[in-house]
Structures
1.
Amino acid sequence: MGLFNFSSSTQNQISSDAATINRTMREIIQLLDSDYISNSVKINASNKLSYIETESRRIMNNINSLSHSQQLNTKIPWMNGETMNAQQWLLMFSMMMNEVAQALES
């Protein structure tokens, strides 16, 4: 019974962190969605990335603490509202972070 409560609590934390990350990533994408990205925009986007750093580490740790079947059964909303399992979400997040990093480097 305690394991079930831990799992439920972990899944709730994952959902909460995902909501924060999704909201902040949408803000970052809006900032970077132009042909020219000024230094002030890069600084603002970097600050927003720092803001979600704790949530992103926590969500990765929490997902990794779940069993494989729990990861497959944990549905997490992506930025567009589509839900996906935890492993898919981590992959999408990683890809998005790579795109953001490339945009900030240019």
Note: The helical segments are 2-32, 39-51, 53-65, 68-73, 86-105.
2.
Amino acid sequence: MKLFKYKGDIYIPKSAYKSSKEARILRILLVFIVIFTSVFLVILSRHYSSAAEFFGKGEITVTENVEQEEILPEIEGKTNFLIFQTDEDKTSINFIFMIQADKSSKAYKVCSLSPNMKIDGKSLYDIYSVGGGASLQTKLTEYLGIQLDYYAEFDTTTFNSFATKLGTFIYPVSSDIKYTGGKGDNKYTIHLNEGEQKIDSQTLSNLIRYYSEEKKNYSAENELILYSLTRLFNADNFNDCDSLFRLFIKSASTNITVRNFENGKDALMVFCKANMSITLYSAEVTYEDNVLSQSSVKEIKGYFGK
């Protein structure tokens, strides 16, 4: 660009002039941005306590890396089961009890019966020896005035085999137990110290039998069964429930079918995955010459009626 027309004119290259002009413009813009930002922050500080409040009006949420609680299916109704164990030769009943899975109230209800119990002058074993588990199921249903939906019969070996697959659990033993009982090939031994003890399948079998046959302490028997239900029916076993059911069918004489199992999977999921929050009820019975007292019959009806 020429500044003077005559001799000695001074020239400034166009490119340098253009760069100088752009630099001035950028400096002006920078000053404007700084002033605008300062004013904006002053206004922001007067109306909002934080940037989060300005951008989200207090509705910004923080996502934490936590595992969401699984939504379990809705279930309802009640199902009653009869469970009992015999010796290897099926010449006696070691223990027998009833369980109700109350799906509506998410509860277990348990009632242990005496193996020496009599109905119309016949012992439970006499009834069993005629028609097996089905005859026991039918007779107890009629006598107690409740519906026993399913039964499962084990001998000592098959009970231990199935319970071994379920695993072990820790149980608070109330006092030292050192006992040998039974007769002939049906003998059993328990050796437990007071305090928390690891209960495996054989110990569970023997301890139920001990409370039932020797101590006739049906309250303690109920407590042990309820404790084992909440510990052994758990999320891990539910994940393996198909193979466990196949073992159950192989181990037990039962009227539970594959269809029954499939239809009951939702309930099984709830009882396994919510196991520690299931409500527990115990129906303790009394006998008069091996016959259930009338008050006990009424109590069982109250617990196991549908």
Note: The two ends are 106 Å apart (CA to CA).
3.
Amino acid sequence: MYEVLDGQQRITSFGRYVNETWKFSIARNGKEYKFSSLDKDEQQKILNSPLTIYVCEGEPSEIKEWFEIINMRNVPLVKQELLNAAYHGKFVTLARKEFSNSNNGNISRWKTYISGDVKRQAILEAALDWVSDGKIDAYMSEHRQDDNIDELKNHFETVLDWIDGIFDYTGSYVCGLDWGRLYKQYHGNPYQKDKVTQRVDELLEDTQVKNKKGIFEFILGGETDTSLLDVRVFDDKVKKAVYNKQTKDAKEHDYSNCPLCRIGHEKNAKRIYQLKEMEADHVTAWTKGGSTDESNCQMLCITHNRAKGNR
């Protein structure tokens, strides 16, 4: 007995046509023909046509290399398809039946959080990635002969239940996030779903947040890493206008055009910085409700701006 590693869809289509298990026809000379409607000699010509079959044997690395060669001129196999071929056996058969079956009733829920084509192994790849901490190859090698996929299924559902227990939002921004890593990093933290929901809604509506996908990790991490949000920054026009205003005022009063330098007693208390030596800063931090406009902008010397942080 052999397991089909490549060409399964074509073989299945052939079988369905000959056995008429699916109602479809083939076109010949402008007419549609089911298998049973063909003349006997035509039926026999199809049934007796020899098929070229390559029997692939070897170690997983050799099998993967073989697949890369035979797919060079066709639609290339994705990484997970190559791994399925390399580690074919009971485990892969069961895993594909669960996670690569487009008729599975759970597909709709799964695709809320996982992007990609189910038939091209996207869901299976995500499930394996989550349970193995990204070491899919090693995990499949270890479990190749397992006669169940309980650990894989249980961990996958645990991650999804964890997401559902924290977030109400199921829009497009949660699809494709690295949920396996986020679960591992944050699943031990307590969250209040109603407060999380309110905060998600606020950040989704905030026009200053440019990376909406970063909202979820931002909240999970205690709202400390604003780089996840790619918050809108001051444009050059605003920075130049604020710089000119501060510099004019500083020269008139004989103190530094950096507000934090001038309150010190060191040599920079009266220093006038060039524009390229300064950075724009939110007077009131964005995380504390400050807006990204001229009224909330101040120019600080690079040293003070980077030391100020989110205060």
Note: The first helix runs from residue 8 to 19.
4.
Amino acid sequence: MREVRVQSLDKLEMADGGVRLVANFGELALVFPQGVWEALGRLSLPLDPNPEELRELAAVRQGLAEHARANGFASILEDVPCGNDGSPERFDLVLRPSGPFALTMGYVFEPVVTREHVDRLEACLFGEAYVEGVYLVGAVAEEGAFAGEGEAVKVLSVRGRSCSSSRFELAPELWRVLSEGMGWKNVEPVAPLGSER
């Protein structure tokens, strides 16, 4: 058996009673008969992360801390309370690059990101004076986690290399770790599903 990891979805089109999917920057074409395509649409992946996804999640966290130390960031803090209202939520990592227009980003790492995680972080940010934006990074993320209404909390999932924003909108330090340190070529932006909860 040969396994091919799909790194990009380039085109999806109807083809001879089925669906043709072009992936990996045009290097791979998959043709699914209509019945197989419909069966795939009814599948749901388990939310349990596998060991490789958990290792990659840990590598993102470690890579961010190492990148910040190597590049003289103004602030590198760990286990920081979120907000000023006594919220139990905490940032695993808070980074502020040096420079006059630098934004302070908070990072929270979870094996499985849920909509409830996003809601709790959004709530605690109302009292937050230091952190200007948050990335909730998971080994996996449930579909509803990407349905945020606000811009303050971004969700990034190792599984599917998907994010609630494009790679051009990611914090520079995060994209450098993902692309240079981990070899990611892109992130798949996930369109918000609206305000359904």
Note: The two ends are 40 Å apart (CA to CA).
